Amino acid sequence: MNKVLMSGNNIIGEAAIRAGCRFYAGYPITPQNELTEYMAEHMRKAEGGVFIQSESEVAAINMIAGASATGARVMTSSSSPGISLKQEGISSMAACELPGVIVNIMRGGPGLGNIRPSQGDYFQATRGGGHGDYRTMVFAPATCQELADLTMDAFDAADKYRTPVMILADGMMGQMMEPIIFKSPAPRVYPEKFMLRGAGSGKSKFIRGLLLDPIDAEEHNWKLARKYEVITEHETLCEEHNLEEADMVIVAYGTAARIAKGAIKRLRDHGMKIGLFRPITLWPFPELKLRALSAKVKNFLVFEMSTGQMLEDVRLALQGYAHIDFHGRPGGAVPTPAEFANVVARLYNKRD
Amino acid sequence: MMTKAIFSGFGGQGVLMMGTSLAHSAMSSGYHVTYLPAYGAEMRGGTANCTVAIGNEEIASPVASEPDYLIAMNSPSLFSFQTKVAARGIVFLNSSIISDRPSRSDLTVYSVPCGDIAQDLGNTRVANVVMMGAFIKKSGVVTPEMYLKSLETIMGSRKKGVAEVNRKAFAAGFDYIKD
Amino acid sequence: MAKIIFQKPKSLKEKIFHYCPGCGHSIVHRLMAEVIDEMGIQGITIGVPPAGCAVLAYNYFDVDMIESPHGRAPAMASGIKRMLPDRMVFCYQGDGDLAAIGLAESFHAANRGENITVIFINNAVYGMTGGQMAPTTLLNQKTTTSLAGRQTLLDGYPVKVSELFSQLEGSAYIERCMVNSPAFVNKTKKAIRKAFECQKAELGFSMVEILSACPTNWKMNTIDSCQWMDDVMSKVFPPGVFKDVTKATKKAAEVPS
Ligand SMILES: Cc1ncc(C[n+]2csc(CCOP(=O)(O)OP(=O)(O)O)c2C)c(N)n1
Ligand code: SF4
């Protein structure tokens, strides 16, 4: 297996194509332009591959919805403001049970914000984002290797549950390069009966989200809800780092978790027993695993590049069984491990 | 071991290539490595910089808060980054176009007239490779053989001449630094 | 006392532009500021900059301005103008902003005959995001998302916004100009003035499309960029007046009853 050095944005593109993605639509936005550009170059080279530079993100998400209905593996990507525009389409895909992968390389917000790495879109990603009673699965990679692996996994999950899946990373992950190895993707499993390819001589079918009869709509909502329950039960992922004998656990994801690891290393050298709990799926949130930790650990510190969003999920998971502190750096600011170590050390020394 | 370096200059000086080639050779040498370019609006008006971190274990942040090395290809880069360099860090200056010197006295400075050396070799575009020769000699983060191999991989084998010119440029920079 | 023959327009702030050398945005900013000064409307002008290289235009224009999401400037400007009909309201938009993501907003603002002025910078690429294909990218023009050059089969055709919008009954004044020579720069200034005058006379939607160089993403030097605009770009986007209701009303008045 060959190691390659690629940027995060390009890795997502390459992993998608290797996973069999054959339709991509997107609209330029920093800091994910390299992904759109990668697809422009490579998608058209892949057999049967289609690339469209859409006129807007609204158009892009609807283009992938259409291509998904025909049975293709599909992807679109953008960054925060563009993801806001996609919400209408994501809600529609969830309603129509169309698989697809949506990549959000987050930047500073709200509004146009800035183009620095940020984690301000956690609520939007994990709470559904658009209108209606639905969820999207959210993968939050923290290394370039995970970008490659989770992108492939996202396509499988999308097919398995016939639902939109989001990759939530940030500008730093999109821009940075690290050596990685592409795994070989599993063969695709997606029954033809879900594909809309023209009835031929058979019976015609339709895909819809509009259910005017409230009883039908209610049943559809419960059906989706049961699916989300299955996902919650089977699909949570997390990394537990240095938890043995920890007196304090940092909860962080993505880039923030990398910084936390750097800080933990420094503080362990000074004898402070600090561990890291890193959710890899943000929805479903690894709630039970985190709650189980509270039997041993009484001090948690949530660290996010936002004013505190995952914090709410941590509170829900710990249910008051442990003390929770929060440290946030919103708006595109990325602290160094040394800076963050100072914050952690102060809280560690004050713990009960 | 953990080494961080910032490469900075005008767009068109091949600054990002300096970073990617180093990162690639660090990967080939079996190290953990991250590479992070400046991006987006920062590039308007024509500047470029990137950071490379190389270590024996997983690298936490690709941002170089206190780089051990600054490789400045133009004066604005020297002024932007000299305050960030770690205590007793090392600065490489493209002395063909930088007449200023760092205001900090704890830094070791290597002035490499890489623009002039490249011109003597008949190709001003390889000034960046000349500088890499000097940097690899002094820092020793990777072997010259490994670096040249990565350089070739990155530049592609499109033109045979290119590899030859790069080799010469690298050697000239390497030899410019006396032990 | 020495006679002042050249100075910074009052409607520009004391700020150095962040635009690349040779970029058309800087020239157009100055022309607009001169027009605003000459018309004495600095205090009643409200501008809406785009998402694009000119996103920071409020750092340069010394008039009231409000940022809009990408492409939505004409919608925002419509809201502003309807509430404040006696102000001068302009949008400043790039080709991605106006003709891709914001086509619906600009099209319908023009069709409603919103009494606003749109300054439309056509540089045939997405500048800010690093040179991707724009709706106005020429056939065979290479960009970072049309690596082999724009192909009709895959990417369609360059959108001719002035020609299109001149067909809408709500539009009052539509002209296409260039800023690649002193003579053309002067002509562009006259067009901007005319567009603002139309708004002042409450004639409806006015737009000046300005062919403008992006040497950075065209990967050309400034001189070649200007030449390319003459030789290639202006052949696809011919300059000229596409709509002028002031002429039509004059003509109608001349017709004997
Ligand atoms: C919803 C949304 N999508 C994408 C972007 C990113 N974006 C900023 S400017 C721009 C296009 C700029 O091109 P153009 O309008 O031609 O103006 P120029 O920079 O060339 O002046 C894009 C795609 C954004 N800000 N918001
Ligand atoms: S990228 Fe192009 S449009 Fe943007 S400032 Fe530079 S020259 Fe002007």
Descriptive report:
The complex is a heterotrimer of chains A (352), B (179) and C (257). Chain A is of the alpha/beta class. Helix content of chain A is 41%, strand content 20%. Chain A folds into two domains: 231 residues, Thiamin diphosphate (ThDP)-binding fold, Pyr/PP domains (Rossmann fold); 111 residues, Rossmann fold. Chain A is built from twelve helices and 14 strands. In chain A, helix 1 packs parallel to helix 6 and helix 9 crosses helix 12. Chain A is globular and about 75 Å long. The mean pLDDT of chain B is 92. Chain B is α/β, with parallel strands linked by helices and 179 residues long. In chain B, strand 4, helix 2 and strand 5 form a beta-alpha-beta unit. Chain B has a single domain, classed as Pyruvate-ferredoxin Oxidoreductase, domain 3, CATH 3.40.920. Chain C has a single domain, classed as Rossmann fold (3-Layer(aba) Sandwich). Chain C is 39% helix and 17% strand. Chain C has a seven-stranded mixed β-sheet, sandwiched between helices. In chain C, strands 5-6 form a two-stranded antiparallel sheet. In chain C, strand 7, helix 7 and strand 8 form a beta-alpha-beta unit. In chain C, helix 1 crosses helix 7 and helix 3 crosses helix 4. The relative contact order of chain C is 0.14. The model of chain C has no long low-confidence stretch (mean pLDDT 94). The chains are: A alpha/beta (352), B alpha/beta (179), C alpha/beta (257). The interface between A and B is medium-sized, with 24 and 19 residues.
